[in-house]
């Protein structure tokens, strides 16, 4: 067995080796003082086995590849900072001379408001919504392909160095968990036997996803109601920063829900997989990973997808708003778009998950469990001397059980999704991921060396189903970023205005072009503002962000021809962007060989040597057979001599020896 050297842990010398290996790993790998150094992957593989070694090798490659992505992301962000004062649309919004009165953001409680009050949001949105983000989205799509290719080459090199080229994973048949004493005979489960478990899995997965959607909808209702409550509030502090308060508190609620549901979904996915009784360990692991990934991915990304693609689209218009659950009016985006809110949600979710899950779940909870295990073992001060003389493997019993590396992979895959899927709205995501991973590598190293029992070493030649998930995410990221740029950001409306509607081919007049007119006498009964007079004059016309006909046209409030022109350009952009980036990605994939050239040459040389050795052995066998044949023909047996069998037996032995 490949892991026999790690299984036989009974002897004192082996325990001394384990202890020495752990000390060496701590000094060269788990210490924070060596964060800038490469990981000792060979040593990790020798101590923990190939499966754990491959995870840390993959994490190292991923972290290394995040460095150029983080640098470009920071440059894009700095470009937004440098050009914010030259951005004409935000300058027009911040210009008090325009004196644009906007329609209320909610019914009755909200009043009319001046567009100039959205100045801060408009300037902040430009940091993330500028032409450089389009370039960055293309760059990140190609970056994902380069990362996958780099990992394939690194994996091939490790396979060669670790002598795994001819290794085929043997699937161990998994014993179904039985209750009671029914362990005498093995029962072969048919498809009919497995059908109830499969149906249960499908129904439960659908139910859990529905729960996620329901919670996100609940947070939407919270945002709507708290916004109305803050507008009614008599406290000046509460009314001063309504948008920021609502955005931040809603994002924090989403984060808390995501972290709690992550733990629940992991337990449910394991229970459902056990219920299905997979035939092999590999099948069990893959099914468990797939279920957990689906649930955690939906849980983490549903609030983000809502902000990116649905918020502000299902609103209606003044006088004909869309309502849900009775009198709750659907949310609108800020004038600068929903990209800023999407950025805040991504930032809080990403940083919160990393800080809380890393610090609380990966450091705090294991230490708490370790403390509880020591309490349960009832080691008194009198027994401490006995504990000190225990052997290494006996002391290791106080450490936490090894739960596998799938949770570590899952955490990184969700992070990879955050980095690639919505990078158009948050160019600093790769930087945050890089800083987290530098800490994560040493944190995981310390956990594996000091907090967990040494796992049984397992061979593996690749990272398995995780590679397919990464590849799928990198493909989906191209489509998602195309839709974010086209529909969530103002990139396409700005482009269409500049080249189709602007009188001087500049962005002057863009803000006015995006605002439609509404006659306040057309409000539905009971929806007009209760306090409309705080602006010191009577409002007759208010503005709202949409492309609709004015109230004095022959078709008042219908979608204008500008809306359809912009929609056509948006769809065309999605198709062109997706196909161009996919084509470039496939070209990069084709250009870079999967096997490094030096490894390929070495494998080729070894094959030639193997063929030459085989030919020499065949030639030797033929010569031996020919010699034996000559001896037999030259020997003349007599009638009373019983020794003719001796040369024959000798030739057979000689032939076997040469073989």
What overall geometry do the principal axes of the alpha carbons give? elongated
Q: What is the beta-strand fraction?
A: under 5%
E-strand count: 8
Summed up, the helix count is 22
Write the layout of secondary structure elements.
Layout: H1 4-7, H2 12-30, H3 41-48, H4 50-83, H5 88-94, E1 101-102, E2 113-114, H6 119-128, H7 131-161, H8 191-232, H9 236-240, H10 242-276, H11 281-310, E3 316-317, E4 320-321, E5 323-324, E6 328-329, H12 339-376, H13 384-388, H14 392-395, H15 406-421, H16 429-451, H17 465-488, H18 491-501, H19 510-514, E7 515-519, E8 541-545, H20 561-591, H21 597-634, H22 645-658
Antiparallel strand pairs: 1-2, 3-4, 5-6, 7-8
Helix pairs in contact: 2-16, 3-4, 4-7, 4-16, 5-6, 7-17, 7-20, 8-10, 8-11, 10-11, 10-12, 11-12, 11-15, 11-17, 12-16, 15-16, 15-17, 17-20, 21-22
Outline the structure in words.
- There is one protein chain.
- With 659 residues, this protein is mainly α.
- The protein contains 22 helices and eight strands.
- Strand 5 (323-324) and strand 6 form a beta hairpin.
- Helix 7 packs parallel to helix 20, helix 17 runs antiparallel to helix 20 and helix 21 (597-634) runs antiparallel to helix 22 (645-658).
- It is elongated and about 125 Å long.
- The model is unreliable at 1-18, 178-184 and 638-659 (pLDDT under 50).
């Amino acid at each position: 067995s490949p892991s026999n050297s790690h299984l036989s842990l009974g002897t004192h010398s082996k325990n001394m080796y384990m202890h020495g290996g752990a000390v060496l790993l701590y000094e060269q790998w788990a210490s924070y003082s060596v964060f800038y150094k490469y990981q000792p992957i060979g040593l990790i593989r020798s101590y923990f086995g190939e499966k754990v070694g491959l995870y840390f090798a993959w994490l190292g490659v991923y972290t290394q590849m995040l460095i150029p992505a983080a640098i470009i992301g920071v440059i894009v962000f700095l470009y937004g900072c440098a050009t914010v004062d030259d951005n004409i649309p935000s300058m027009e919004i911040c210009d008090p001379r325009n004196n644009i009165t906007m329609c209320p953001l909610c019914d009755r409680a909200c009043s009319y408001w001046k567009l100039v009050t959205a100045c801060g949001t408009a300037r902040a949105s430009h940091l993330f919504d500028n032409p450089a983000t389009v370039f960055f989205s293309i760059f990140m799509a190609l970056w994902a392909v380069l990362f996958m290719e780099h990992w394939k080459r690194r994996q091939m090199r490790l396979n060669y160095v670790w002598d795994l080229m001819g290794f085929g994973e043997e699937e161990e048949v998994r014993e179904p968990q039985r209750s009671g004493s029914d362990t005498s005979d093995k029962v072969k489960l048919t498809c009919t036997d497995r059908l109830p478990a499969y149906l249960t899995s499908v129904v439960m997965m659908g139910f859990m996803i529905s729960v996620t959607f329901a919670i996100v909808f609940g947070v939407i209702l919270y945002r709507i109601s708290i916004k109305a409550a803050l507008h009614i509030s008599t406290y000046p502090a509460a009314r001063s920063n309504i948008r920021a308060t609502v955005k931040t508190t809603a994002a924090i609620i989403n984060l808390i829900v995501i972290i709690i549901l992550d733990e629940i979904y992991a337990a449910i996915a394991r229970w459902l997989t056990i219920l299905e009784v997979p035939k092999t360990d590999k099948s069990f692991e893959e099914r468990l990973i797939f279920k957990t990934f689906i649930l955690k991915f939906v849980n983490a990304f549903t609030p983000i997808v809502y902000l990116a693609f649905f918020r502000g689209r299902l609103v209606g218009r003044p006088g004909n708003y869309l309502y849900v659950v009775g009198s709750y009016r659907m949310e609108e985006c800020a004038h600068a778009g929903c990209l800023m809110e999407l950025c805040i949600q991504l930032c809080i979710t990403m940083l919160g998950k990393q800080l809380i899950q890393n610090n609380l779940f990966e450091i705090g909870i294991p230490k708490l469990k370790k403390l509880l295990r020591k309490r349960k073992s009832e080691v008194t001060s009198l027994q401490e001397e006995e504990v000190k003389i225990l052997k290494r493997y006996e002391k290791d019993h106080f450490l936490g059980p090894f739960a596998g590396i799938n949770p570590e992979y899952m955490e990184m895959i969700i992070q990879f999704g955050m980095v690639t899927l919505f990078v158009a709205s948050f160019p600093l995501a790769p930087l945050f991921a890089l800083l987290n991973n530098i800490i994560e590598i040493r944190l995981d190293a310390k956990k594996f060396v000091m907090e967990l029992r040494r796992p049984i070493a397992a061979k593996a030649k690749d990272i398995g189903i995780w590679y397919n998930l990464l590849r799928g995410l990198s493909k989906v990221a191209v489509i998602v970023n195309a839709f974010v740029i086209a529909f969530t950001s103002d990139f396409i409306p700005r482009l269409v205005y500049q080249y189709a509607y602007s009188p001087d081919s500049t962005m002057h007049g863009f803000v006015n072009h995006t605002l439609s007119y509404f006659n306040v006498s057309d409000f539905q009964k009971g929806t007009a503002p209760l306090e409309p007079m705080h602006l010191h004059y009577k409002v007759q016309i208010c503005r709202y962000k949409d492309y609709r006909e004015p109230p004095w046209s022959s078709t008042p409030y219908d979608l204008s021809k500008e809306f359809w022109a912009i929609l056509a350009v948006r769809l065309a952009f999605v198709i062109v962007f997706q196909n161009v980036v996919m084509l470039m990605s496939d070209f990069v994939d084709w250009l870079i060989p999967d096997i490094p050239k030096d490894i390929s040459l070495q494998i080729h040389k070894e094959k030639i040597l193997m063929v030459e050795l085989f030919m020499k052995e065949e030639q030797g066998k033929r010569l031996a057979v020919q010699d034996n044949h000559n001896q037999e023909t030259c020997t003349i047996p007599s009638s009373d001599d019983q020794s003719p069998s001796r040369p024959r037996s000798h030739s057979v032995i000689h032939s076997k020896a040469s073989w």
